[in-house]
Design brief:
Blueprint: H1 2-35, E1 39-40, E2 61-69, E3 82-91, E4 96-102, E5 107-109, E6 117-119, H2 122-140, E7 146-150, H3 152-161, E8 165-169, H4 171-188, E9 199-203, H5 205-213, H6 220-240, H7 244-254, E10 259-260, H8 264-271, E11 278-285, E12 289-294, E13 297-302, H9 305-317, H10 326-340
Parallel strand pairs: 1-10, 2-7, 4-11
Antiparallel strand pairs: 2-3, 3-4, 5-6, 7-10, 8-9, 12-13
């Protein structure tokens, strides 16, 4: 009798174990089915380059570039400017996340055939994600090899599915939110009404995206980059609190609108720790800067690029003795020549 009970108990344990395996297999299979909807492109990975880095300070960190493209037809690839450029740095051990948005008008060396200087957001336009990542890496001594590109429609939809996010809209910002809302309605074929009043309030996806696009207030593009980081942080905080049904709806909606070189396996490795991540700080880059017109175009110039890069590495990786590469010093000397004469 005791042996029969033991066999029945063992059979139940095996059955439960089999059910768990089946559920895991179904769950993983479902995830990969969902992830297959992403526009994954690794064609430019072999052309990614970095400076001759002593990158011990970057070990233990995963650095991903987020590009928000300013496309009137919501396209995601090259021939569109990346008006949002955010380096997301993840500490693999602590799961702490830091955001550094690079001002889109930053005067940078674009390492394509002619190696000319231009606004950094032009790199994506000229050469898609490989040239955009190479420009970030070369000018700032980074090792960013992964990217995620999103457009206006994707950001609007995610925020709507999350039930909106809370923003503090100033009276000065209100008119611009409503102006950009009208433009986003045309792009996304929506009919979202105006925001009626300023103040702290829960706003929908269109109003939040419009807020993130404002650059015509005090602080200009620097303030816009800050608004973009605020929206990213608010989305992240809201998503961490969302239930599975909401997250599933977001995945269904957002994945076909994502363009990336992160494949399903790597995306799964990121997703499994999503609840452990915490955005602990955010900043704009370059830190010390000057904005002025050069050759009849308005640019942002780092004041001493080498000093800015040292500070960036300290911010992202906690490095206190980083020595910029010769390439950064070369670019810095060129920028100093321009700023000293303007």
């Amino acid at each position: 009798m005791a042996k029969k009970k033991k066999r029945r108990f063992k059979a139940k344990v095996i059955l439960v174990f089999d059910l768990i395996l089946i559920l895991l297999a179904v769950g993983i299979g479902y995830y990969f089915l969902m992830a297959s909807k992403m526009q994954v492109d690794k064609s430019g990975d072999s052309s990614l380059v970095m400076n001759d880095l002593d990158s011990k300070d970057m070990k233990g960190y995963r650095n991903i570039a987020i590009f928000g493209v300013d496309s009137r037809d919501n396209s995601l690839k090259s021939s569109t400017h990346s008006d949002t450029i955010v380096v997301v740095s993840i500490n693999n051990k602590t799961k702490d996340v830091k955001l550094a948005s690079i001002y889109r008008d930053t005067y940078s060396l674009i390492p394509n055939g002619d190696n000319k200087f231009d606004k950094i957001n032009a790199a994506y336009f000229k050469g898609g994600y490989p040239l955009a990542l190479n420009t970030i890496n070369m000018n700032f001594d980074l090792d960013v090899k992964e990217f995620v590109t999103v457009n206006f429609d994707a950001v609007c939809k995610v925020i709507d599915l999350l039930g909106g996010i809370s923003l503090d809209i100033t009276p000065e910002e209100l008119k611009y939110v409503n102006g950009y809302t009208k433009e986003l309605n045309k792009i996304n074929k929506t009919n979202v009404g105006k925001l009626k009043a300023a103040g702290t309030q829960v706003v929908n996806g269109t109003h939040a995206t419009a807020y993130a696009r404002i650059r015509y207030t005090k602080g200009d593009d620097f303030k816009r980059a800050e608004r973009q980081r605020i929206v990213i942080q608010k989305i992240f905080e809201k998503a961490k609190k969302a239930d599975l049904k909401t997250l599933n709806s977001i995945l269904n909606e957002i994945l076909p609108k994502i363009y990336t070189n992160i494949d399903s396996v790597e995306m799964l490795s990121l997703a499994k720790d999503i609840m452990s991540y915490n955005i602990v700080d955010q900043t704009g880059f370059p830190y010390e800067k000057r904005a002025f017109t050069y050759h009849r175009v308005s640019y942002v110039f780092p004041v001493d690029l080498t000093a800015n890069v040292i500070k960036l590495h300290e911010y992202l990786f906690g490095t206190t003795d980083y020595a910029p590469t010769d390439k950064v010093k070369e670019i810095s000397a060129k920028l100093k020549e321009i700023t000293d004469n303007n």
